[in-house]
Write a structure and sequence with these properties.
3-stranded mixed beta sheet
Length: 125
Amino acid sequence: MKKLLVGLILAASLGGIAHAETAIVSETAYPAKAIGYDALVVGDNQRAIDDMMSGSVSRHDPAFLLNLGQAYARSGRVTEARELFRRAARKRETVDLVLADGRVVDSKLAARQALATVQVGLASR
């Protein structure tokens, strides 16, 4: 298992994290804007999507998949978000991700929780 230090935003899916008020204040181990962290923290989902899609991070990276999924979910693109969360959950390798609130979460667990939250959100509509 790899350990990856990133500011991962999963606001709706993991405890309602809205702002980074801990030691994790931006992406670490990634080029600036690569996983859309700063844009997601301020709620600019379209900028986060644009930043991630124009970056050079692998489209298979769990942090990329989870943050892009979060931006899609917040933007109402729930079908696309679900697919990204499913892809992250199916990854063979797992990585530890540091969330914006400082908690360390296994990437597969984060993906399953994000997927469950998106599905619950759909059911409550």
